[in-house]
């Protein structure tokens, strides 16, 4: 029996087509909006990653200081510093001072007699506007634009692979593969428990923002394979990392040849800072000028014989902090090579050499006041004694671009001049 309200399938569909279409539209629209809510666009995902990373790096400060160069230095309580994000450091008791300094450290360094070879005191720019209180450490605040300059959030604050000189049996393709070039002096063949040097400070010109120029000490353990251990400290100019061309104090560490572990300064957990006066990554002022006043910094890195941690001292007065020994495999015991010298990145796309300068941008033969130098080079032996290095070698990939020349005298001990302009008539 067919009722008055009964329709055939085709009639019913035609009568209700509009309603069904609207229902499907709303339903599918809801699914689409849910899908969009669950998967934000790539730009939003990046912003979220950057925000989380900044929150992780920038700890709540006790006080903040605006530096004349635009940096903000946050005075963070010593127990809240980035190092303690490391799972192995959750219950770590901070070692406020080393048990031992290397023997011979406090012997008075001989001053050069000639006034032309006198150097001057050096400072950090942010000191002009204040100091951090006791029980805090100064941390350069990371800004959003700092992270965005990196190729990814994960790679922010890290060196690229193969950013180390390999003096013996160097693969000729190493330069082309990595783009890193060096002019260094080095020692190997013994067990080393630290190194020291006084490093001339300049402000080399950088051609491209993704290039850098630095002068540093490397404390190396293991082979040059995937498990290389390295502790590094010195000064650098790196527009990519800092957003300007200022000369800055820096440190670095890695336990796997720059692959996943380690970072610059305090941009990851690892280095434990105990000093309230010196900020990692902060600008150094003043710097040396060609044929004018010369400035240098002294850096000492050594292994505490009792605790086994690797300590860093800046100048004669500032013990900055330490890398806990558990961060490393080979350096858990001792170093097998020490390097001192300069490094630049050559990233020119057309096969021509970069104009990025190393050191002062002048070749070593120009000498004091014109070329960059390392002086009073020393190593720490197994008895915790500072001593002159034996068998000091030199290495550079392209001596026509950047070079190194060693020497020795009563005032400067073992020293070398180094650097160069990069591209020139002999370095195309």
Structure description:
Helices cover 14% and strands 29% of the residues. Strands 6, 10, 12, 13, 14, 16, 17, 19 and 20 form a nine-stranded antiparallel beta sheet that branches. A hairpin with a 3-residue loop joins strand 19 (403-409) and strand 20. With 428 residues, it is α+β, with helices and mostly antiparallel strands. It has one domain (55-162, 179-419). The chain is built from five helices and 20 strands. The chain has helices at 9-38, 42-57, 144-149, 174-178, 239-242; strands at residues 63-66, 72-77, 123-124, 136-140, 180-192, 194-200, 213-221, 229-237, 248-254, 272-273, 284-285, 296-303, 310-314, 318-323, 335-345, 372-380, 386-387, 393-396, 403-409, 413-419.
Name the helicity range: 10-25%
Unreliable stretches (pLDDT < 50, length at least 5) are: 1-9, 20-36, 108-116, 170-177
Helices, by number, come to: 5
Would you report the number of β strands?
Answer: 20
Gap between N and C termini, in Å? Answer: 98 Å
Oligomer: single chain
Number of domains: 1
The run of helices and strands is HHEEEEHHEEEEHEEEEEEEEEEEE
Strand % is 25-35%
Q: How confident is the prediction overall: mean pLDDT? A: 87
Rg calc: 28 Å
Shape annotation: globular
Give descriptors for this structure.
single chain, 428 residues, alpha+beta, nine-stranded antiparallel β-sheet, six-stranded antiparallel β-sheet, 5 helices
Please provide a brief summary of the model.
This protein is α+β, with helices and mostly antiparallel strands. Helix content is 14%, strand content 29%. The protein has five helices and 20 strands.
């Amino acid at each position: 029996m067919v009722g008055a309200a009964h329709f055939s399938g085709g009639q019913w569909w035609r009568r209700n087509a509009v309603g069904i279409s609207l229902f499907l539209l709303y339903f599918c629209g809801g699914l689409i909006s849910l899908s969009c809510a669950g998967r934000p666009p790539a730009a939003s995902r990046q912003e979220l990653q950057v925000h989380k990373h900044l929150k992780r790096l920038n700890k709540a400060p006790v006080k903040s200081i605006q530096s004349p160069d635009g940096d903000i230095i946050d005075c963070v309580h010593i127990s809240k510093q980035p190092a303690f994000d490391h799972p192995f450091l959750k219950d770590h008791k901070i070692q406020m001072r080393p048990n031992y300094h290397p023997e011979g450290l406090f012997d008075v360094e001989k001053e050069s007699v000639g006034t032309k070879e006198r150097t001057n005191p050096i400072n950090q720019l942010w000191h002009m506007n204040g100091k951090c209180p006791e029980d805090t450490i100064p941390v350069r605040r990371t800004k959003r634009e700092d992270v965005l300059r990196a190729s990814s959030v994960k790679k922010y604050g890290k060196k690229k692979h193969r950013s180390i000189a390999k003096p013996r049996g160097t693969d000729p393709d190493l330069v082309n593969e990595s783009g890193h070039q060096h002019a260094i002096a080095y020692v190997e063949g013994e067990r080393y428990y630290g190194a020291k040097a006084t490093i001339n400070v300049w402000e080399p010109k950088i051609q491209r923002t993704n290039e850098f120029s630095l002068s540093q000490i490397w404390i190396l353990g293991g082979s040059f394979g995937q498990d290389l251990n390295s502790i590094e400290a010195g000064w650098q100019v790196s527009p990519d990392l800092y957003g300007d061309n200022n000369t800055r104090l820096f440190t670095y560490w890695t336990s796997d040849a720059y692959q996943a572990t380690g970072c610059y300064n305090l941009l990851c957990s690892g280095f434990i800072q105990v000093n309230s006066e010196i900020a990692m990554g902060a600008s150094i002022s003043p710097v040396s000028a060609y044929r004018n006043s010369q400035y240098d910094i002294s850096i000492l890195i050594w292994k505490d014989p009792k605790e086994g941690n690797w300590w860093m001292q800046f100048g004669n007065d500032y013990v900055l902090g330490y890398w806990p020994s558990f961060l490393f495999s080979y350096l858990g015991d001792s170093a097998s090579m020490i390097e001192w010298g300069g490094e630049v990145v050559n990233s020119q796309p057309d096969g021509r050499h970069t104009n990025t300068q190393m050191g002062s941008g002048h070749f070593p033969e120009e000498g004091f006041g014109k070329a960059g130098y390392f002086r009073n080079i020393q190593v720490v032996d197994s008895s915790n004694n500072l001593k002159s290095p034996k068998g000091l070698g030199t290495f550079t990939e392209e001596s026509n671009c950047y070079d190194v020349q060693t020497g020795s005298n009563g005032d400067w001990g073992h020293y070398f001049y180094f650097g160069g302009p990069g591209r020139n008539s002999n370095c195309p």
